[in-house]
Amino acid sequence: MSAYGVVLESGAVRFERLLPGPIERVWAYVTEGDKRATWFCGGDVEPHVGGEVALFFKHSRITDEPPPESARKMNDEGKLMTGTVTAWEPPYRFAFNWTGMGDPDSDVEFALSEAGDKVRLVLTHRRLATKDRMAMVSSGWHLHLGLLEDQLTGARPRGFWSVHERLQAEYAERQKDASI
After folding, report:
1. Which of 19, 23, 89, 134 could form a disulfide linkage to 93, CB 3.0–4.6 angstroms apart?
2. Would you identify the family this protein belongs to, as annotated (predicted)?
3. Structural domain includes residue 168
């Protein structure tokens, strides 16, 4: 299984990870703000379709690496984005419409399934309007899902800012022929 996301269709990328279970534990790391803040972003989720999703990004919580100047404010002070729950099926499926990342909104879905003593996580992000956004989002999910794996395995968190720019350029090259 590759760590790289794959383009599904115009403006859509899909990631798959096999993580240590049980499924309820992975679900908690995806949906509970305090656990999610250790690998992605904090913020509460109202646990029902139509509920509000708060996405508070403060990368100084997930890495001690210095950020690039363009990300310093978000890294140090944080940035709140929002969304609306579009699917809530514990512990198998959580989806939301993501607002505030740019125009237009986009859609994120986490699908979990049991795979023996592991959990298959499939993350799909749709409605990414430009090639630049597709590369940025793809590199971000790649890195954040790696940090989730580190949290679940008890490994030392891997680098984030030290590889972000390189990985974003790599995704731009990998996705250059995708129609968006």
Report:
1. 89
2. Belongs to the AHA1 family.
3. yes
